[in-house]
């Protein structure tokens, strides 16, 4: 996996320390839940502080979707514990999910997430703001996002893509641009129109007329919508 794992790869297990334990096991923690592992350039940094507070306040939103959170930075547990107090004071967000410790950068190197142009006070590279959304059971990567250190993540968007992934994993649908829960979803492209009838019912989906298909008798129209049934 040059440069680290990517979509559909199994995310490497994180075994080591968090702010609460020296025997953390990511796979054991996730169990049969979806997982989000999100990296932070460093403790006591301003953007990261706002992100962790936001994640903490949204933890219940993720939990209702069977998603567990796990933070990650190149600091030790003592640093994490002190930082969590700052996060609470600044954002009112109480971090109870694990913050994985990678002070040696062993895991960061394996994941390919170090930014050689962004270094800490010891001239060691810091991590980029990578987000990995992991599917349950086999912990494969369903989605990745990477932000530079200067740009905070949009956790509403992360929640939205979780909603999309859970629908498209469990149902024969896809989601269009800017989709939000409750809006129509796209009939999955591999399905023929006959398959769509069987899956959604003859009156359960609709075709969007496009010039390229005008006047043609086709077994499959490429742009079709159905109701969001989640």
Question: Can you put this structure into words, describing what you see?
Answer:
By secondary structure, the protein is of the alpha+beta class. The chain contains 7 helices and 13 strands. The chain has helices at 26-30, 46-57, 59-63, 77-91, 106-111, 155-170, 193-200; strands at residues 15-16, 24-25, 34-39, 67-73, 99-101, 114-119, 125-127, 129-134, 141-147, 173-174, 185-187, 205-207, 224-226. Strands 5-4-3-8-9 form a 5-stranded mixed β-sheet. Strand 8 and strand 9 (141-147) form a beta hairpin. It is elongated. The two termini are 35 Å apart. The relative contact order is 0.15. The model has no long low-confidence stretch (mean pLDDT 92).
Give a topology summary.
Layout: E1 15-16, E2 24-25, H1 26-30, E3 34-39, H2 46-57, H3 59-63, E4 67-73, H4 77-91, E5 99-101, H5 106-111, E6 114-119, E7 125-127, E8 129-134, E9 141-147, H6 155-170, E10 173-174, E11 185-187, H7 193-200, E12 205-207, E13 224-226
Parallel strand pairs: 3-4, 4-5
Antiparallel strand pairs: 1-2, 3-8, 6-7, 8-9, 10-11, 11-13, 12-13
Helix pairs in contact: 2-4
